[in-house]
Amino acid sequence: MTDSTQAMSRRAALTRGATLLAAIAVTVVGVQPAFAEATPAAGAKKKKGKAAKDDFYFQDTPDDSGKSCKGCINFTPKSSGLFGADSGDCALLEGDVCVHCYCQGWTDKRDAGAKRAGT
Ligand code: SF4
Q1: How many domains, in total, are found in the chain?
Q2: What pLDDT digit, counting tens, does each position of 38-57 carry?
Q3: To test the ligand 1 pocket, which listed residue (74, 76, 109) has its Cβ within 8 A of the most ligand atoms?
Q4: 64/101 same-domain check
Q5: Which residue out of 55, 106, 107 has the highest number of ligand 1 atoms within 8 Å of its CB and is therefore the one to mutate?
Q6: Closest of 55, 59, 54 to residue 102, by C-alpha
Q7: Domain that holds residue 69
Q8: Given this model, what pLDDT does residue 4 score?
Q9: Are residues 27 and 61 in the same domain?
């Protein structure tokens, strides 16, 4: 290999290296906004969602002792929904629940009322 051939090779290698660095820089700059959108801003709180019914062993019948959503502090009745006029919303679970449904999150609304009253 002659000196001029070696010089051309070095020049070509440097040019390729510079091109590669420029491509990496463009890629990093291009990816950064997408990453920033996927990452919550510092100090931002994650939005809390409701749990899946399966996670709380939800059933559309009362438990063996007769406990049901109707007596649960987490239940809010509504006039229509998946269970017709018996439908309601649950503070813990996603989707419709019903007055005769039950899950492991059941909390006696009478006890909650008593605790609030300080008894
Ligand atoms: S926590 Fe369970 S029992 Fe209570 S309202 Fe929700 S689904 Fe019904």
Answers
A1: 2
A2: 454 554 555 579 999 999 99
A3: 74
A4: yes
A5: 106
A6: 59
A7: 53-117
A8: 55
A9: no
